[in-house]
């Protein structure tokens, strides 16, 4: 990895504290940071380097996946950091920043490669990118990169405008748009799993698959983000980005190796092949939901409209379920059902692939047979399960289900941010959202935004702590399917029912 300077805008903010410092620290422990490395944290607060470092150390103690107990390692890590006061609107602050960066590059012997990480609100992205260009910070003999967080626009037009602005200062190859779902280890393994398992390759198409279900359910409500969330909703907050990215990663038939160009191409193909959703069809293919009061893990919780900062007449969506179809030779005719929501029964991100059911064609005596399922548990736990039918013990003719697979609990899984920051530092954009994908995602979603805005789609209430509105179940029932694992709190619990313990070994595929 090249020596470089990591210039962090928003260094005193929440994301930096919770995610970025812990991720850098874990990369450091794994020997995945360059030896010649410098981080310059930027913020408006008049902090000294010492105050900054003390804050970073505190964040490691609170949020690092691995304990920051080795004082020597922590000190060595903190040695990378310096703080610089910067008001993002003030031109002269960028000049002094340039001086600071250049000085550190010289004294520490760090090559002039610069990664600008914008851990700030999206309303500041354009200003900062323009100042980076104007001040000369971006005119370096080494490389420069821009890392930004979502949201990338609010609709198709604003995303296009925004991209045009950023493109004045950075090329597409230099822009790394974070979608933290792409950093989740299981999402990153989808590619490898397809490539290394002929059995998956052979069955990864409409000949064997009946439907695909992608769920990201959360138990949390709107939390302290009313101001943002009430203008965003599940559609903008989760669906347009995280959920469609999961779809692309799953359906993309991704190539071998680290060829980010190829990955971009395959993902783009999925989005281009998605059957467009017409505005008049939104009400039948999309379910819009909002949580009412209910209970989460036995505790009563209020409904969305009674959350602090949410207007009583809010029509905002906290849940969405949609049916999508990909028009290509692999997937033609296979429904993809995608849903995401807040205040649902469990916290789980999971993909279930339901295979066609040959058992139905066997004799009626085959009680208990059920479709084969391939399940990817993405987070908070990680696992892959295959559900097969086998002979039951009691009566020879009966079938029983066995689940084979492997499972890892949430705590020993590397954080998405570790993977993504590592890739950005290496310049590998395979697991970032490329402009084509972002644009095509907004394009697909735009009729839903329009239909919601015109209130053409019913808003279904669902009790907090449920699996979402009844209408989301009907969406599948119309096609003769149902959401898997809604009756049980976790897919993994089915293993116990089937009497076959899961292997507790960590996945050995990496
Ligand atoms: C964020 C959304 O992008 O993802 C949040 O803004 C959501 O509303 C979060 O809670 C979910 O992420 P994860 O990794 O917990 O599934």
From TrEMBL:
Keywords: Carbohydrate metabolism, Glucose metabolism, NADP, Oxidoreductase. Residues 490-510 are annotated as: Disordered. Residues 494-510 have a biased composition (Polar residues). It comes from Paenibacillus timonensis. Residues 7-188 form the Glucose-6-phosphate dehydrogenase NAD-binding domain. Residues 193-484 form the Glucose-6-phosphate dehydrogenase C-terminal domain. Its EC number is 1.1.1.49. Belongs to the glucose-6-phosphate dehydrogenase family. Pathway: Carbohydrate degradation; pentose phosphate pathway; D-ribulose 5-phosphate from D-glucose 6-phosphate (oxidative stage): step 1/3. This is Glucose-6-phosphate 1-dehydrogenase. NADP(+) binds at residues 10-17, 44, 150. HAMAP family: G6PD. GO terms for molecular function: glucose-6-phosphate dehydrogenase activity. Catalyzes the oxidation of glucose 6-phosphate to 6-phosphogluconolactone. InterPro entries: G6P_DH (IPR001282), G6P_DH_C (IPR022675), G6P_DH_NAD-bd (IPR022674), NAD(P)-bd_dom_sf (IPR036291). The active site is at residue 242. It catalyses: D-glucose 6-phosphate + NADP(+) = 6-phospho-D-glucono-1,5-lactone + NADPH + H(+). Substrate binds at residues 180, 184, 218, 237, 342, 347. It is an enzyme of class 1 (oxidoreductase). Pfam families: G6PD_C, G6PD_N.
């Amino acid at each position: 990895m090249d020596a470089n300077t990591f210039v962090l805008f928003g260094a005193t903010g929440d994301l930096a504290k919770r995610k970025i410092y812990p991720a850098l620290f874990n990369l450091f422990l794994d020997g995945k940071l360059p030896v010649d490395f410098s981080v310059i944290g930027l913020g408006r607060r008049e902090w000294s380097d010492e105050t900054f470092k003390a804050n970073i150390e505190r964040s490691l103690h609170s949020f690092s996946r691995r304990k920051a107990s080795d004082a020597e390692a922590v000190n060595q890590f903190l040695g990378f950091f310096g703080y610089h006061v910067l008001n993002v609107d003030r031109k002269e602050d960028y000049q002094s920043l340039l001086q600071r960066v250049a000085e550190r590059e010289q004294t520490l012997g760090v090559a002039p490669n610069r990664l600008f990480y914008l851990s700030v609100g999206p309303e500041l992205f354009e200003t900062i990118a323009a100042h980076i260009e104007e001040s000369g910070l971006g005119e370096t003999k080494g490389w420069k990169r821009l890392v930004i967080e979502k949201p990338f626009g609010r609709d198709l037009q604003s995303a296009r405008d925004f991209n045009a602005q950023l493109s004045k200062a950075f090329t597409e190859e230099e822009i790394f748009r974070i979608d933290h779902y792409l950093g989740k280890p299981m999402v990153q393994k989808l590619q490898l799993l397809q490539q290394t398992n002929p059995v998956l390759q052979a069955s990864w198409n409409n000949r064997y698959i009946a439907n695909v279900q992608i769920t990201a359910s959360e138990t949390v409500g709107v939390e302290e983000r009313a101001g943002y969330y009430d203008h965003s909703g599940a559609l903008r907050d989760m669906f347009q980005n995280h959920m469609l990215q999961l779809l692309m990663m799953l359906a993309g038939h991704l190539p071998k190796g680290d060829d980010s160009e190829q990955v971009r191409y395959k993902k783009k193909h999925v989005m281009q092949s998605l059957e467009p959703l017409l505005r008049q069809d939104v009400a039948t293919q999309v379910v819009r939901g909002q949580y009412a009061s209910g209970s989460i893990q036995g505790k009563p919780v209020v409904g969305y409209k009674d959350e602090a900062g949410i207007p009583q007449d809010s029509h905002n969506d906290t849940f969405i379920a949609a049916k999508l179809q990909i028009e290509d030779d692999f997937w033609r005719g296979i429904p993809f059902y995608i849903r995401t929501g807040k205040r649902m029964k469990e916290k789980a991100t999971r993909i279930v692939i339901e295979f066609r059911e040959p058992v139905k064609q066997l004799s009626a005596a085959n009680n208990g047979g059920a479709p084969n399922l391939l399940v990817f548990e993405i987070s908070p736990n990680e696992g892959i399960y295959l559900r097969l039918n086998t002979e039951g013990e009691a009566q020879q003719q009966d079938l029983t289900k066995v689940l084979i697979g492997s499972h890892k609990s949430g705590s020993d899984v590397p954080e998405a941010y570790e993977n993504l920051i590592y890739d950005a530092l290496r310049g590998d954009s395979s697991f970032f959202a490329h402009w084509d994908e972002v644009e095509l995602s907004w394009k697909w979603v735009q009729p839903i935004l329009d239909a919601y805005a015109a209130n053409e789609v019913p808003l279904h209430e669902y009790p907090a702590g449920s699996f979402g509105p009844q209408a989301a179940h009907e969406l599948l029932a119309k096609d003769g399917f149902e959401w898997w694992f809604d009756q049980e709190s976790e897919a993994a619990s089915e293993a116990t029912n089937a009497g076959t313990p899961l292997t507790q070994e960590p996945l050995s595929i990496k």
